[in-house]
Protein 1
Amino acid sequence: MSHISYSELKNWVQCPFYHNLVNIQKIKGFKGNEFTAFGTAIHTVCEKKLLHEAVSDDLFVQELQKNIADIDDDVEINKKLVNEMKEQGKRIIPEIDDAVSKYFGDYEVVSTEEALMVPIENTGYNFKGYIDAVIKTPDGKYHIIDWKSCSWGWDSRRRSDPIVNYQLTLYKHFFALKHDIDADKIETHFALLKRTAKNNNVEIFRATSGKKKTYNAYSLLMRAIHNITNGVRIKNKLSCTAGYGCEFYKTKHCP
């Protein structure tokens, strides 16, 4: 059975032609950088901290260096930035436990890095994903947490971006299906891990994921599957140079 993940859905939203290159033809696009290496390293630390495992600064530095070493040789690494990131990570680590406890109060850990591979009805597709953390509070609520590393934080535009929020909305929907849990008993939250913030290096906030947003997210997912299945690969030229730009822009793959 085929599967689709949130990241693949996001690629399709960005540009169906880009999605075809990366997810269908399997042409390697973005190869990772210092920021993705930092994000992966700090995610590892967060998982261990949530499980109350002993975490040292050395562990974070080792994870960061390992992730940097895994980046393709043709990607230029900013060594000064990497050294700064080592210190930035060390400032975040002590705040993780306190931030989670202050925000949720008493809680129990249900899972970390929970895999989703849940059938999407009437499509022949599974929804694939990995939930960073699920905890449960004494009121019977389940809380899905997604760790996000960033610089100073998110502005209001990023916080309210539908596509950003749909990640947690879809995780909630398919987590509820997987475990046969009432979706009303599940809440979703982003946890920002801020590298350059002067204080509050860990900020947790709720991302609403009610019935209307779930309907919109699921409708987008179904539309993507329909177009992918039917081979619709229209270029979205607005994405060619938007943001950081497309790595295939004006290359042999997308002349």
Protein 2
Amino acid sequence: MLVGSVPLESSEAVFRLFGPTLGPYLPAIPDGETGERRWWVARFSRNVYSRHPDLEVLQRPPEEDLGTERLTRRGRGKSWLFRIRNGRAPRIGEPGTGMGFTLDAVASYEVFRRLRAEKVIPPGVRFQVSIPLPNSSASPGIFVPEDLPRMRAALKAALAAEAAEIARRIPHEDLAIQWDGSWEITDVYGGVPQLASGDAIERNVGQIRGLSAGIPETVLLGYHLCFGTFGGWPRFSPPDLGRAVAFANAAIEASGRRVDWLHMPTLDRTDDAFYAPLPELRPQGARVYLGMIHSMASFDARLAAARRFLPDFGVAAYCGFGRLEPAELPAILRDHLRAVKALAA
């Protein structure tokens, strides 16, 4: 599977690159989250939060960082920071379109449909829309800690409305929606000092309850979990997959509907200890994809290690490719095709 972002100039370029080559092996194909979307949740700070009447800007990046080409921080202390204005209860944008996912999805779907008719995209492959989970969308360092619960509640409502609106505008049999969680996984491993107390699993699973209520069962639903790529991959390296497995089990249980796939990253580890928690995974029918298409010199050894604990799974990269350079894509494509052959062997 493909997680989401691709550093190309348009959704058509993404579909033309991956449709003919990986399309026969994919459950769904993303539009690449091109343009400013390649920076994932970083774009919200300037495009949504900084313009919101209920939010106050406490800190903004240096002037040279405000252009489209610099949505991410250059160093610590040089990012956006917000708080909710006194007495305000923020609502994020127009319900269903205020975060931008619906409008982007509808535009890309028209390209998807045209290229499928041209046989660039194989029949049966769905159009994939990836949306960050609320807790990743409002993380410590972007909002003051005391405002996180209210901001995350507002974002849950906004993102749930976007997912429901996408499902209303795109034919269900063509659609797959994926929830992306990065800060969630960092938090459940104790990597967010501002949120170190309390039950981290419950803190991050609570946002999932009711989030997919507006997504019909005829639409495929997946989760992408991540160790983070901002500042380089991985943002942190856990000792094993134990906490990720625990969170995945809780997320699937809390989803309130069928989950069709679960993507979980791996590291450059060939030892049994890292993969040993995988037998505890309870996918409840979801197809499991392990993010191990990287560092291909050790791919076969890592594949064998994971299979000792989880005999049946698909493969993917550890994350999207949005923070990489376009020149790296041919090698990435070759790695994916090699992984397909190894998986079938």
